[in-house]
Amino acid sequence: MRIGEVADRTGVANRMLRYYEEQELLTPGRHRNGYRDYTESDVRRVETIRDLSASGVPTRFIKIVLDRQADAGAWTSKCDAILADMVRCQIAELDSKISCLTTSREALRSFLDEATLERTVRASAG
Amino acid sequence: MRIGEVADRTGVANRMLRYYEEQELLTPGRHRNGYRDYTESDVRRVETIRDLSASGVPTRFIKIVLDRQADAGAWTSKCDAILADMVRCQIAELDSKISCLTTSREALRSFLDEATLERTVRASAG
DNA sequence: CTTGACCTTCACATCAATGTCAAGGTTTAG
DNA sequence: CTAAACCTTGACATTGATGTGAAGGTCAAG
User: Fold this and answer.
1) Which residues contact A59 (CB under 8 A, 6 or more apart)?
2) Lower CB density within 10 Å: C or N end of chain B?
């Protein structure tokens, strides 16, 4: 499929799809006329990139993970441990981010609830 | 406490602490000599900012969240509805962010699991 | 054949988050 | 008194992720 449809389906701007390609996170095929040609698998990949990127994971790192995913068999013993540690570290960071966001969310939520209650009370009292 | 200690304790660069202050996310006191003076509560605030920021939450938004947390009682009747909508909107954004992070976490997790399995198999086979 | 909606590349602009450096004040230790 | 290690403000540079626009190719519909 062409770039426009991918952009529509993933919510990732046209421009960014080219950018990700430039960063070698993505390698869509080409039609004879030069248009990029994305597969369903590409779309899934874009969604992953979109999410990781929005989570503050740097594209360099995304690339590494995605590359490893491609040839899951090609771990060279030497780098295995290092990469695994990196991933574990990122997961830990994500965990801490999630809990932080959740806390913030809860704070806003309870704030909103209190405020709504406040207004309700005021409304029924006035 | 002075800025250097805050930087050491939070891992947030000196420069960024000033930046956050400039963006009104933080308002440390001042010593007589002009040095910034941070409280323990400031440190906790910095940690929140650090995590939210690392999660890709823009500082503008962080400011709003933090502000709301601060003056939970200060709703003026006129703005109630508007403010409530804003907060609801922000909660929605946090929600989407959280699910995004969770998805990313799962992706990394399963990647790591597969890789580990792979190595285990290879190890016991070789 | 023309028009409009796509697509291409290339380049420049912007914005937020940072690094870095200069010039100078303060405090503490020797 | 001086040197080292802090701190201050201010300015400028960089980097990554984006927007935007120009100049032009492709294709389908009328």
Assistant:
1) A20, A23, A25, A49, A53
2) C
End-to-end Cα separation, chain B, in angstroms: 57
CATH number of B1-55: 1.10.1660.10
pLDDT by position in tens, chain A (length 126): 999 999 999 999 999 999 999 999 999 999 999 999 999 999 999 999 998 898 888 888 888 888 876 665 555 555 567 778 888 888 888 888 888 888 888 877 887 787 777 667 777 775
Question: Which residues neighbour B81 within 8 Å (Cβ) at sequence distance 6 or greater?
Answer: none
Mutate to test the interface with B, among A108, A113, A122 (most CBs of B within 10 A): A108
* Domain residue spans of chain B: 1-55, 75-126
Q: Which residues of A touch B91 (CB under 8 A)?
A: 105, 108-109, 112
CATH number of A1-59: 1.10.1660.10
Residue type, A38: Y
Interface test with A, best of B50, B51, B86, B99 (most A CBs within 10 A): B51
